[in-house]
From TrEMBL:
Location relative to the cell: Nucleus
Residues covered by region (Disordered): 160-224
Native source organism of the sequence: Solanum verrucosum
Keywords noted in UniProt: Growth regulation, Nucleus, Transcription, Transcription regulation
GO CC field: nucleus
Name the UniProt record assigns to this protein: BHLH domain-containing protein
Taxonomic superkingdom: Eukaryota
GO MF, any single term: protein dimerization activity
Chain intervals with Basic and acidic residues compositional bias: 166-190
Taxonomic placement: Eukaryota, Viridiplantae, Streptophyta, Embryophyta, Tracheophyta
GO biological process, alphabetically ordered: regulation of DNA-templated transcription; regulation of growth
Annotated Low complexity bias: 212-223
Listed Pfam families: bHLH_ILI (PF23174), Transposase_24 (PF03004)
Amino acid sequence: MPTFMLPDRWTLLLKHWSTDETFKKRSEIGKMARASEKGGSLHTGGAISQVTRKERMEKELGRPIAVAEMFKVTHVKKSTSPTEEERWIEPRAQETYDRYIRISQEYCSTLPLESQDKPFTQEENENLWKQSAGEPIRGSIYGYPEKAYQKKKSWYCGSSSSSFDGGDKETISAMEKRKDEARERVERGVSSKQNKKKTFIILNMSSRRSRQSSSSSSPGSSRISDDQIIELVSKLHQFLPEIQTRRSNKASATKVLQETCNYIRSLNREVNDLSDRLFQLLSTIDTESPEAAIIRSLIM
């Protein structure tokens, strides 16, 4: 019994809790909700709705705000010091946000290389968040502004054949169209380069064959036939896919090369520093001594 309550009042409360059917029903609902794995919907936004907060953030920053960006602002506790680690309001919030990051990276990896550096559109961000947050609960999506969701509820609740279930069919169709167009541009560029290379090789081989034919004076001189040229060009053409694959790894190769160059520069700096020290040491000892000879051999 609480210390601030009179015994007779406490007895009345116990009787009410054990006999009142309405209270018992509400208690059972609350018990089920507390035991649910879906958890609550805690946030740090106070009494301001997510829609209002989103509008204020967009007005303050002068640009559209992605759902995940606003979600992190309203579900991470404010740090009391710069060295304090990031603290989420509840485990469910961190799990949902981490899932969004993972799904976004997976989706980005399916795009053509030239489109991977571009930021997601507002529609893409919303569909990625809907997949990360899961199915609606009582008509609402976790972390999604309620009014914005209600406007799109009709299409979100419908079925979709896309891998992003529950997304806007038109939006997903536009996303797929964007991917196809980018892929077609890349393929056209690759095909054009391959045709140019093939034409150049044929012309080069034909020119070389003509020079060899005109310069050969002996009866037994060798001559390359047209069939051999075509066969050689076909073999060279087989290497083009491997070249394209290596080009796709250009970014990682460039990074490795840059790291190697930085390491070599660091070694050069250390060697120069060591040479300066040896010069200083050489000026302090007898130039005819064996030590001076050793130092001169190292410097030279």
